[in-house]
């Protein structure tokens, strides 16, 4: 009897937990003079984007936490940014608005760049990701978006763990699949910035992005 009661309680709790995380959500925005809308839950595998009750895009996604309209590339048109239920911090995907086809197209490779942020109106973006040792090791990519493809052009590797063979900040220029080391800094350079390593990353890319074009 006791086993039955425990099993029943666990079953009810699991279903309630799933129901909480499987909340039905909506998002909408005016884009290019047209009202676009999305209805979704994290159990969906295909999400339909509608305009005037007509399906304009089908997004093949799963494990969605949140979807929102945001002008990510600062072209004057709102895009769709997706955040996933994931163990990876800031696991996002991006669909850019195509003003010629009046729909939304996925940016390939975008999920490889966590915490992506823009550098302004130059179509360049940078990321941040943990790389181990309690976040003492970290990476940041500089990338561009061309023809709905996220392409890395620069890379910063921060190694601040005492167990590393060589501690420091190492900056690489990326040409397709080749990485070339162009600059090194001592790891304590990040201590000079108000926002620590995040301040260094933002300032470095903002000041030096032309070197990677």
Automatic annotation (TrEMBL):
SUPFAM superfamilies, alphabetized: Integrin alpha N-terminal domain
InterPro entries assigned: Integrin_alpha_N
Source superkingdom: Bacteria
Identification of the protein by name: VCBS repeat-containing protein
Organism: Mucilaginibacter celer
């Amino acid at each position: 009897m006791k086993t039955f009661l425990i099993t029943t309680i666990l079953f009810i709790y699991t279903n309630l937990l799933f129901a909480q995380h499987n909340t039905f959500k909506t998002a909408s925005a005016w884009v290019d003079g047209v009202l676009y809308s999305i209805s979704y839950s994290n159990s969906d595998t295909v999400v339909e984007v509608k305009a005037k009750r007509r399906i304009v895009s089908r997004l093949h996604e799963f494990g969605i936490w949140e979807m929102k309209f945001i002008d990510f590339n600062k072209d004057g048109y709102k895009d769709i940014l997706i955040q996933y239920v994931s163990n990876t911090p800031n696991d996002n995907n991006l669909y850019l608005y195509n003003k010629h086809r009046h729909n939304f197209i996925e940016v390939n490779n975008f999920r490889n760049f966590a915490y992506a942020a823009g550098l302004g109106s130059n179509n360049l973006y940078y990321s941040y990701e943990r790389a181990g040792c309690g976040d003492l090791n970290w990476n940041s990519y500089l990338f561009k978006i061309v023809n709905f493809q996220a392409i890395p052009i620069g890379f910063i590797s921060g190694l601040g763990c005492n167990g590393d063979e060589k501690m420091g900040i190492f900056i690489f220029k990326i040409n397709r699949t080749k990485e070339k080391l162009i600059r090194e800094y001592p790891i304590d350079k990040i201590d000079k910035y108000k926002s620590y390593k995040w301040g260094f990353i933002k300032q470095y890319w903002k000041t030096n992005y032309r070197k990677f074009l």
